[in-house]
Design brief:
elongated; 2 domains; 6 strands; 149 residues; two-stranded antiparallel sheet; Arc Repressor Mutant, subunit A; 4-stranded antiparallel β-sheet; 23% strand; Gyrase A, domain 2
Length: 149
């Protein structure tokens, strides 16, 4: 059952632009596959799914290693997931708290995403400030951070 579900997940993300876990759960349901959010999160981790930016600026799930995703970027994403302890948005700024010494890696990962509305990021030892062009972009990035973690 798990392998069939994961096969269906890969099939869905290769044919549809799926941005969120909820969208993926709905697509699985339409395909006759039931899944909980917790199970889906484990499947995403097991399948090494990542989010990539589409040409229109949205994000979609994709399997790691496809479409030229560099190993360097995958490592940065892993470091990001393991180092971020908290984050919050303040208008167009996002403050990211990390384990000591890892704020620079966290901000580097965000900058490697080439986000169109990212103005820049600056990091200290355990805190990074990320400036977005507007408040809405900062809110969207916080949602993406939530998904990454």
């Amino acid at each position: 059952m798990k392998s069939e579900r994961q096969k269906k997940i890969l099939e869905i993300i290769s044919s549809e632009n799926i941005e969120t876990q909820n969208q993926l759960i709905e697509a699985l349901s339409r395909a006759g596959v039931r899944s909980t959010q917790a199970t889906l999160s484990r499947d995403i981790r097991d399948l090494h799914l990542i989010k990539e930016m589409t040409p229109d600026g949205a994000y979609r799930y994709t399997a790691a290693g496809r479409d030229g995703v560099a190993d360097h970027d995958l490592r940065l994403r892993k470091i990001f997931r393991e180092s971020v302890v908290d984050y919050s948005v303040a208008q167009n700024l996002i403050v990211i708290k990390t384990l000591p010494g890892l704020a620079d890696a966290a901000s580097s990962m965000l900058e490697s995403l080439n986000l169109p509305n990212l103005v820049g990021a600056i990091a200290g030892d355990d805190t990074a400030f990320v400036a977005m062009r507007d408040n809405a972009s900062a809110e969207r990035l916080c949602e993406e951070i939530k998904e990454l973690l």
